[in-house]
Every structure is written in C-alpha cells, then in structure tokens.
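Possible race condition, two jobs.
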Amino acid sequence: KGAKWGINFPDDPDFKIWVWVDALINYISGLKNKEKKYWPADVHVIGKGINWFHSVIWPAMLLSAGYELPKKLLVHGYLNLGGQKMSKSFGNVIDPIELADKYGADSVRYSLLKCSVFEDSDYSEKILIERSNNELANKLGNLISRVSTLVEKDGLEKTENKLLKKLKLKEIESLIDNYEFDKSLNEIFAFIDICNEYVQSKKPWETRNKKVLYELADSIKAIAILLWPFIPSTSEKIAIQFGFKIDYTEIGNPLKISKIKKVDTGFSPVVNVVTSGDACTVPGAGWKSRGAAC
C-alpha cells in the first residue's frame, strides 16, 4: 500500500500488485487451454534463494483459487565458481552453450548432473574437463571401445550374464526417484569400473572367449539405458551399434546377438595446452574438430 511505482490494483489504485503475485500466476496462465494436461505439475523445481515465494506464497495463492498443488517441490542448491555463487552481477557466469559447442552437449550434461542437486556445488570448465577425461573418456569410452572392437573381431556367444548381478539396479532406481542424480551416476560408474576390471581379469583379447564378450556387451546395454537420461546422444549411438532399444524394461532382457562394429563414443581426453603464458584447452586426437585451437 502507498507504493509510488508498480501495477495498480484494479479496485484500489492506492495498492500496487506485488511482483511475485504477477510472476507466479504465469505458471498457470502460461498453460492457457492446456491446464488439464499439464497441471498440477509433477515436480516444481526452484532454487533455494526464492524458496519462500514458491513453497509458501504460491501454494497459498493456488489453494485460494481452488487449484491443486504441485505433487512435489524440489529445492536445489547453487552452482558456485571458486566457492562464490554464480551471478550476472558478479560477472562470473559460465555459458553452457559455449561449453556445449566446445565439448559437446553430453559432456556438459554429465558434468552438471554430477553436481549435487540439494547442496551447493563448485563448477567450472576445469571440472567439466576432469569429469569428461576421467569418467566419460577413460572409463565409459574405454570400455565401449575395447569391447566393441573385440566383438567385431570375434563375435558373441549367448550365455547367462552373471556380471550384471553386480549392478545395484534397485539402489540406482531409488536414488533417481529421490533426485540424487550425482549418487546414481556414482553407482552406474562403479559398475563400469567392475566391467573394466572384468575385461582386465578375463583377457578376452587372448582367450577369444565369446561368452565373456557377451556378458560385457549385455552389461553395456544396461549401462547405456541407465545413462540415457544423462548422455542421450552417446547412449543412442551405443544402442544402434549394439542392436537394442533404449527402454528401461530392456535391462533385464538378454541382448540379442547381432553384428557389432567398433563404437566411437566421441569422448577423447582433453589436454591443457599453455601458449605465451596463457592456458587454454584443446581436445585430444579423435575429438572430431570440437574445440578451438590455441
């Protein structure tokens, strides 16, 4: 009341409409004639800095207007750069489009989703590179490349996949249902580590054991399906080459034997290059022209 600037309340110009009231209504008004299809929202996602308006003011407005509340409210933490919250006013924001152009969308998606949803997390181009190198290139990429190369050469023989029993599927499902994406990725990559260790211990390049290769190929199917929400382009590329559908129900179905060719996931190590005292990053060999030269 008495504010000199703002949108006048229709019945009393001495009152101004609070900006949050006008802004929050857009969640409903923006749906126009599609309210029945999209409302109530399954999950209302909001940053912790404006939690009050979305967990108190907005529900009160909805209830007063006779609308159902969102089914869940997910309040996430901040992405920090060097311990400081990213902010346009601080001038420390990172452009995800530039990162995607340089490293590929899947690398950006993965590196961001490895950050905690509920706690504040540090993020930077350096962190993206470390995660892309250590996990996507060295672990996932190495497994896919080695197994697909051997399968292309030696083929597969169907057998029971005992290796898949080491995948903690129920735990991963629970973590994803609770929006703990970083922890679910940790479990998926723990299984990738197990698969890489299995390659090393069984030495299929020496034994030419088609049953071992089948266990690994069938396990890769499960890995790709689980990773699809995080790195969809890569998962779909693997699915095409290994001959399976990206469908969660397919995890428990044995992989059908087909002709498999070597898969290039597109993840190659990114190396730091220092020129004239300035550091820059360029992709390693095989990166398919992503990134700029120093």
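Job #2 (started ~2 s after job #1):
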Amino acid sequence: NPGEIPVKFKLIMPNGKAFATMRKILNEEGSTETIFTMPQTALTGDYTLQLLTGNDVLLNTYDISVEEFMPDRIKVNFNIDKPEYHPADSIRATIQADNLFGTPAADMNYQCELNLSKDVFSSKKFTDYNFSVVNNFSFTTDLHSAKVNEKGSATETFQLPKDIANTGILKGDLMATVFDETGRPVHRYQDFKVYTQPVFIGIKNTDYYVSTRTPVRIGLIAVDKNENTRSAMVQVEVVKKEWHTAIQQNGSSFRYVSQQEDKTISQQNITISGASTIFYFTPQLSGDYEVRIF
C-alpha cells in the first residue's frame, strides 16, 4: 500500500496535446478517482489517460475512444426457435434487417456467432443439496457469415454437439451482427439453456469434519430441470486424497515433490428415489475424502 501520496491524471488528445491534468492524493487504501467532462466540441478519436507521480514519473496508461453518437441506420430483429435445447439438437436462428424508413435492408453482410459456457443448476426446493457437475468443458465459437437476401432476411442453423452430454446445464449465447452500407455493425442477442442430462444428482451438505470409525450419513437426491424428484441408478464412489513424496529430476539435480493420488475406498451402485435416499460411509483413517456420483 503506497499510502497517501500525490498523483496526476493527464488526458492526452488524439493530436498529442494535453486535454486536461488533474492532481489527486491517494487515500489510505492507495486509491482515488477523477472525472473529465468532454465538451461537445471535443476532438473525436483515441485519447490516452496517463497516471503519473507527483514528479511526472509515468505509472500507467489507459486508452479511451471518443466518438460522435450515430443512430443505427437499420433495424434488426433476431429470434431463435425455442428457449431450451438438448445435445445434438439444431438451433434455428432468423434475422430480419430493415431500413429505418421501412424497406428491407437487402444484401447486407451479417455474422451469427454461437458460444456455450457452463452454468450452475440449483434448486429452490432442495437448497441444502449441492448439484454441481465437476468436469472439463470447452467449446469453440461457431461463427457463420453471409448476406441477407433481397428481403433483408436470413436463416442460420447451428448443430449442438453430441459430446456435451452429462455436463450439467450450459448457457448458450447467440449474437447476430448486421453491417449497414457504411460497415457499421448493429448487434442483437438471444440466450438459451442447454440441458445435457435428464436428471441432476444432488449431494446433501454435511459437516466438513467428521469422526473416524463413525458412519457418515450422506443424503442423495435426483431431480429434473423443473425440480421434481426422479429415480436414477448411479454409481457412488468414495475417494481418499493421499499425498506422496517423490524424487523428481530437474536437469542435473534432483528435488523432492509432493504428488496427490486419489485412492478409491468404496464403490457401489445404488438407486436414488425421492428425497430419502441415504448413503453410508465409515472412514477408518483421518484424511481428506471425496464423494463422487457417476
């Protein structure tokens, strides 16, 4: 924490001249703020905000773009066929671009971009259960580019992959960008959910610390996307996390490193039914344990 020291904010215009300089004193937490008010006659372009010490030593810079407000020249409507999907489903997206005075914005370039990211399933009915799905998920952006037709419309179809199954809930984002005759983009967005599995398994939250040689009572539940209880056959695995010291070569020298090993203690198939399914496990030794559901 640098403490209360003087600093200067200097805003540099696109022509390289200083627009204004503000002097400030950092507070006890080492932070401060300032405001620059841009007049209507200000130059448009890229400005640079400089942060300097009191004796003009440059600490950092930040680029700011100042532009005139330009209203959209075209109106864009963007829709998808439904709000929820499943693995291997097709997403049908429609674009309609019109000039502001009502005629179709024919033959305009457009892009349509699909992104998927992990989301979290939680239940308002069963708040004491953890439904987190722990696995690796990655998705490469799917980008389509073309022109709208003479009526200003276009249709794009995106195919969801099959291999996203059993990754929990995914949040989907579709962005349509239509470029007017000057190349200026107009963006529209649609979001949706992808349910990659028919049921979601929850593990009831228990005490973090338990005693050895004493049965631990672990509640399990299976619900659908609407939080209704379901039956499901699952495999319950208890893993003990152990650490071992190994010798690792590093060039011509050797060093000791700690490596974690997951040791399976228990593994069994059980049927989850309703909200009363209980799994019992008795830890014989102290250590870190993890319950996994497959």
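The mean pLDDT is 90.
Logs attached separately.
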